[in-house]
Specification:
Two copies of one chain form a homodimer. Chain A is an alpha/beta fold and 358 residues long. Chain A folds into two domains: 80 residues, Winged helix-like DNA-binding domain superfamily/Winged helix DNA-binding domain (Arc Repressor Mutant, subunit A, Orthogonal Bundle), CATH 1.10.10; 257 residues, Rossmann fold (3-Layer(aba) Sandwich). In chain A, the strands form three sheets. In chain A, strands 3-13-12-7-4-5-6 form a seven-stranded parallel β-sheet, sandwiched between helices. The longest helix of chain A has 19 residues. The two termini of chain A are 25 Å apart. Chain A binds a DNA duplex (30 and 30 nucleotides) through helix 3 and helix 4.
Chain lengths: 358, 358
DNA sequence: CAAAGCGGGTCTTTTTTTGTCCCATTTTTC
DNA sequence: GAAAAATGGGACAAAAAAAGACCCGCTTTG
């Protein structure tokens, strides 16, 4: 830690600078993803007064970073290029780069990317994470491979942000698991199809009714079509998946209160494509259904891209990932900082005031 | 110019940052050189209201950079280390590093150092320049060499800031010229003696009465003592000198109005150890006296360290230095920026508003 | 064509900043 | 050792900046 870092000096001399930079960066980023966007909408989004946001807008416009029209606000060319070029700097300035390195060592994974901001407070962070994950995904693609992707908002964002540029030939995209009852936009099937379209790849889907009995599943397994697609799923070389917390599952899908309590009793803290894990990463329960088997993941998968954000997900993330050299993590700042707290033993919620978060 | 520079992005996103940093840096630097220093004295120094300075002081104290006692304010250890470590960053941030490179090429000298700030507005800049020059001087020292140094405030600052640490053996310090009537602290003789003391070197002085006639000088030249020291001066391997403007000469020494007019008519813009130069660097007049001959400077001197600051000196500096690979320049930001304006043809005073100067 | 959303203007209120003192104390100076 | 000067800190009113809360005319959108 003898590396002399200018950033610390600057913050020491002018502690208000991180706040200023982060505030304006957030605004630019939001406009970037949501333009055209009005002044009032933006103020409501960040939950600040209309007038205070207006002042920021004025300076940003004076700097030529945004343009305003009757439709709303846009980023100028200069604004777009600034957002792009200042992001790596901000990451370093806010200590996210060292955070990435720490998590890399602590979790023993292949790669960690931390996106500035907290998903829980700023929704566009989801898109940023999706973009980052999409970039990594592209790097991992090899002709002829099978790519499995799970459901959830995070993976939907990956699909959204994936550019339509050309990709290696002969790729097949499949859902990691047959239909888990979600809204259609974040169902694994929908996402797999969208990803396939972006990559100009083929895809196979696995549509299943929700909440099937074990018997029904056994019957379905004997169907040739289903057997085929299941084999395909289990031969995936890349898996992209999000992470659910137990609470989230209960809320989003129709898990009853009693079932929820049973899960908690078993120690379930996180969920990945239908499997509930306890804090040690052991499977304690599963949603009935068909899809990826964990054993095959270990044997076949070369890359597992995990996308998750929000402070609340920290425990689940720790439970799910780690100790796998195949894992690539895309986190947001909120989750990443919280993970570090957890792993370093600071279980509490404190010590957050000194950190200026995006 | 395709080098992506974070600094420009930061300034684009938050144009108030340079002001903040520079303001606080100036305060810390002044306290560093003048502590203990009271709140009112400091406010008077920077010509700002007592209350506005107080607010800066409060934040600096909250940051643990300064401590206040009944004697006045001091830098804490943290404050001192900050000033030291943030200076190179600030130079880069304010564009002084690229300024140095530009001047290096334009003036074709060996080295250029630009110190943040303007001597005309902030006197401690003189000390900073002195320190920078002193550091360079130490690098140039070789055992047994003769070091000549001129008079003036700048060279006095060099002597002040020279650390007393050990130096090569057998060095002899001499004044570049025999007594030009100045206050004793900035006379070449005094400075030479002080430098010698700091370097633990020997020294020879050349005390002469002011305003001698040519005849008297000729007589003195035949004196063995004087001849000896003159030979010593003209064998100097290093010369440290400041630069005077014509106006300054007139003010500081007793040059009459008519004489001043005559100098101006001859095109004199700068003065170095008694020689008046026009804008082309040609000698147009000289103050009667004994000392260094310019021819010997070209033949013998390996290093000529020129120390000058303040926007007003720009023209004089351009006239005096340049095209000598032996020259090492120590400037302040005010002079340096002005020199660039002059050399690039922007003769006017404009375009200063966008630049935040220390 | 109407409703919603947009930027921009403008008013008052609130907060922050600044100017201007005074005071008790310490430090310096003579 | 006394007087003078300088120190930090407190206090308060004035000024300025920021923020809140509107309205208005316009464009866009459904």
């Amino acid at each position: 830690m003898m590396v002399s870092d200018n950033h610390e000096d600057i913050v020491l001399l002018a502690p208000e600078i991180p706040e200023i930079l982060v505030r304006r960066y957030k605004i630019l980023r939001k406009i970037y993803y949501s333009s055209p966007l009005g002044r009032r909408s933006l103020a409501a989004y960040f939950q600040v007064g209309e007038r205070v946001l207006r002042r920021e807008i004025e300076t940003l416009r004076e700097q030529g970073l945004i343009s305003v029209s009757s439709k709303g606000m846009f980023l100028t060319a200069s604004g777009k290029s600034l957002v792009a070029s200042i992001t790596p700097f901000l990451k370093s300035f806010l200590g996210l780069t060292v955070l990435e390195e720490k998590l890399l060592k602590l979790l023993k994974v292949k790669r960690v990317i931390v996106v500035p901001g907290d998903l829980e407070q700023d929704e566009v962070v989801l898109l940023e994470m999706g973009r980052a994950a999409a970039r990594i995904l592209r790097e991992c693609l090899v002709p002829g491979m099978v790519l499995a992707i799970s459901g959830g908002m995070s993976c939907a964002a990956v699909a959204d942000m994936l550019p339509e540029a050309g990709a290696p030939q002969g790729i097949t995209v499949v859902p990691a698991r047959g239909g888990l009852g979600e809204v259609v936009d974040s169902q694994a099937n929908t996402i797999a199809a969208r990803v396939a379209k972006k990559l100009k790849a083929s895809y196979r889907l696995l549509h299943l009714p929700d909440s099937l009995s074990q018997e029904a599943l056994q019957v379905l397994l004997r169907e040739k079509n289903i057997k085929e697609i299941l084999d395909l799923i289990n031969s995936a070389r890349i898996l992209v998946h999000g992470i659910g917390t137990a609470e989230e599952m209960a809320r989003r899908r129709g898990v009853s209160a009693e079932e929820m309590q049973r899960l908690r009793d078993k120690g379930a803290v996180g969920e990945v494509f239908g499997l509930f894990l306890n804090s040690k990463g052991e499977i304690v329960d599963r949603i009935p259904g068909l899809g990826l088997y964990l054993e095959n993941l270990s044997r076949k998968a070369h890359h597992v891209i995990v996308v998750a954000g929000g402070r609340q997900k920290a425990d689940a993330i720790v439970a799910v990932v780690g100790n796998h050299q195949r894992d690539l993590l895309v986190l947001d700042e909120g989750a990443a900082r919280r993970i570090l707290e957890v792993l370093e033993g600071f279980g509490g919620e404190g010590n957050r005031d000194t950190i200026v978060s995006v």
